[in-house]
Every structure is written in structure tokens, then in C-alpha cells.
Amino acid sequence: MQMLGVGLSSAERPTRLRPETTREFGSFVVRDLGVGSTYMRPPTRPLLTAAFLVFTAWLSPTTGAQTLPKKLVALLAHADDETAAAPALARYAREGVQVFMLIATDGSGGSGSQTYLQRSDSGPVGDALVKARVEEARCAAAALGAQEPVLFAFPDGKLGDYLGDRSLLMRLTDRIAKEIERLRPDVVVTWGPDGGTGHPDHRLVSDIATQLHRAGVTGMPERLVYMYLPAEMFRLSNPQRGEPPMVIPQAKYFTVEVPFTPGDLEAAKKALACHHSQFNAELLQRMLPAMQHVWNGTVRFVPGSVVVSGGDLFR
């Protein structure tokens, strides 16, 4: 390993132990004294001594690693799935965490009213719907302060279509694993094993996250948590149907409670309003005013690993 000697002029040079080469950096000189030379002498003047300390800190290979921001990945099946954790995502983005939304499907199946959402049967379909949902995802990410969403564009509603495409699930798993390895998040948030709403696509992205966690895939963090829509949100979105049966865990399992501010809630409301193709004006009029009461200042999660507990996903 080479060490650097720093000086101001020939009068202040240390005794040369080996032949040296010099490089000028502004007002002072860095000299390479060769392998095995360990002698360093900072300038004696106070101002230049401070400059010397800043410069040597800049040379330290660990300096950058100490200032890297934390990262959170929300692994989602569809654009608008982030709603289940939106106030918490907004909180962490506000606090400087890099929040990424990985969205598995193209959203092409999000039309019609045959779900717990009361959507218009006259909304966009096909390619027009796919394009609309891409823009809605970007709008929601911006509202939450998240990074540009990562869109995998697998066919909506068909992630488990083994007979139609036997390699699809393997390709999706590989794609998610590669993105996790690239991002190396500190926390992953996704749907619970029940899918949160019972949707098969939700269940599969949850299964993949759990699979990668248990397999110890490169980049997959120890901190995995499952998100859920509060039951009241289902009742607001479709009063006739209410919440799906057997998908919301018992209260005793919600051991992670993340508080948020009124500003975070407003960001979550803006994100929800981005999804015009999924939430019409009438539905938003019911849901937006009620969101404060529904969450009551806290987003609750079920831990997917034993290291997550308390009121902060990162501690």
C-alpha cells in the first residue's frame, strides 16, 4: 500500500527515504514516497493544517460509505398497491430514505367493477389503460417523494398462469432478484401471504419476496414487512361488499406500528388521487376525508422477519 506525504515547499519537505514523484493539488503537493514509506508530515500553518485534514478525509475509502442514504423497496403487484403503506412511505421519503416502488404487472387488468373497487365500466382498456397506469404510477411516486417507479410490465392477473406460460413465474422471480441485488435495500415492504386483498398477483409477489428473503439472495435485507389495507378502507371503497374474508390478520400480529405526520398523510392522499383509472371522483370523495380516521396517525405492519419490531422499519 502506498502512503502519501504532503508538504508546502522544499523547506518543509520530510527527509526523503526513497525516490519520489510529486503531484500538485492546488496550494499543496502530494508526494509518492514509494512502497514501504510511511512517513507523513502535515503543514504547520493552522489554515493549511485544516486543509490537510479535509484532504486526507477525502482520500479515505470509507468516507462515502458512511453517508449513503437508507433504501426502502415497496414490492408491488400493481400501480396503486402502494396505498396500503403510503403514509409510511411518504414519511421515510421525507426523512431522506430512498423509496423505490417495484411494480410487477402492466396494470392491463384493472378495468371494470367486478372487484372490491367500484370502477367505471367505461374507463380505458388495453394499451390505453397500460399507458394510463404507467403515468399514474409516476404521479403517485412523485407525490410520495419516492424515486421513479420500476415497472416490470408482466401481464396483469396472470402472474400464476403456469399453463399459459410455464416460465413466467421464474422470469418474474429472476427479475425481482436482480433488481433487489442492484438496489440493495435496507427494508422491503410487500403484501402479506394472503395478498392483502386476496388478489393472486398480490399473493405471488409476497411469496417471491419471502422466498428471496429465506434463500438469502444477494441484496435482500433481513428486514421484510407485510402491509395491509385497514378493513375500513375496503368498506369505504365498496360498501356493498365490505372487506374480503380471511385476508386481514388478527390484531396480535400487527407488532410494527409506524407513526406519520399530517403532511405525510396529505402526500398519501395526493398519491391515491393520481390513480384516476382505479378511483373515480365519487370514490375519492368517500375515501380521502376518511383516511385520517382510518389510519389514526399510524400505519401498522406484520413483520416478515424476526428483526423487525416497534415503531420504525429501520430499527
Overall number of structural domains: 2
Number of strands: 10
Low-pLDDT stretches are 1-40, 51-65
Query: What is the end-to-end distance?
Result: 37 Å
Helix content estimate: 25-40%
SS content category:
alpha/beta
The appropriate CATH architecture of the largest domain is 3-Layer(aba) Sandwich
Largest sheet: 7 strands, mixed
Order of helices and strands: EEEHEHEHEHEHEHEHHE
Please, what is the average pLDDT?
84
What is the highest CATH level, the class of the largest domain? Alpha Beta
Task: Kindly describe this structure.
The structure is a single chain. The chain has helices spanning 46-59, 86-94, 126-144, 168-183, 200-215, 231-237, 262-273, 281-295; strands at 4-7, 21-25, 28-32, 71-76, 98-105, 150-154, 187-191, 223-227, 256-259, 298-303. It has two domains: 4-60, no CATH class; 69-303, LmbE-like (Rossmann fold, 3-Layer(aba) Sandwich), CATH 3.40.50. The chain has eight helices and ten strands. β5, α3 (126-144) and β6 (150-154) form a beta-alpha-beta unit. α2 packs across α7, α6 runs antiparallel to α8 (281-295) and α7 (262-273) runs antiparallel to α8. Helices cover 34% and strands 17% of the residues. With 315 residues, the chain is of the alpha/beta class.
